[in-house]
Amino acid sequence: MLDQALSFIVARGRPISIAAWCLCALLAGCGQPNRANQPLPPLDVMAFQPLFQENCAGCHGTTGQMGPAPPLNDALFLRVVTDQELNEVIKNGRPGTLMPGFGFNPGLTLSAKQVDVLVKGIRAEWPSSPREFSGTLPPYATDAKGDATRGAQAFALACARCHGAKGEGTDTAGAINDGAFLKLVSDQFLRRIVITGRPDLGMPDYRQQITEPEARALTDQEITDIVALLASWRTSDSFAQEPAPGATKP
């Protein structure tokens, strides 16, 4: 196109003015778009950070912490959860909760390869080595049945000093005996929070929740029983109607 413009100017027998040179320079920049600068189709994105920021950061935080959803940037969580469990929850979500499934649901489409990129990227981005863990860790998920009565006893030992005797909340931590909250989360969410705490918000994990009469970790059965207690509050009439003075919502 530049050659054609120059030929036209010369053929007219006129000197090439500054304006003509500017026109030629503009024409020289025309042509096909540079494919390297074009955005990739969504299903062709295979880099961890773009996938995470687009699909996960809104709930889990841009660095995997400090979002409304539990952190993924948590060493204990990454020690207890398996790659298969991560893969399945990304694909299928948590039915009945705010966690959507991204496995080709309408409007939320990630390919199997992209889900694998996220799982591997979470492991690589936030390795689980910074915190030391000893002994047998409780499983991330369990089929065991909990007992709400025993759960009340474990709750009194591990949770009541921050969340209140009946989960009504204190000036230290928010109410957990709250219908709106409990109906938005699954039993697996509750189990995960009891195990890992919320280190980004200062909530201790299962090893640090019992301090009296002597410090010890919650057992796997106690964790399961606490989840059973919290689940019973979801459908009972015992919801704390008014938070304690200074208490905040979870």
From TrEMBL:
Keywords of the record: Electron transport, Heme, Iron, Metal-binding, Transport
Pfam families given in the database record: Cytochrom_C (PF00034), Cytochrome_CBB3 (PF13442)
Domain Cytochrome c per the UniProt entry, residue ranges: 43-126, 146-234
Presence of keyword Transmembrane: no
InterPro entries membership: Cyt_c-like_dom, Cyt_c-like_dom_sf, Cytochrome_c550/c551-like
Transmembrane segments: none
GO MF annotations, alphabetized: electron transfer activity; heme binding; metal ion binding
Keyword Transport found: yes
Domain of life: Bacteria
PANTHER family on file: CYTOCHROME C-553-LIKE
Protein name per its UniProtKB record: Cytochrome c
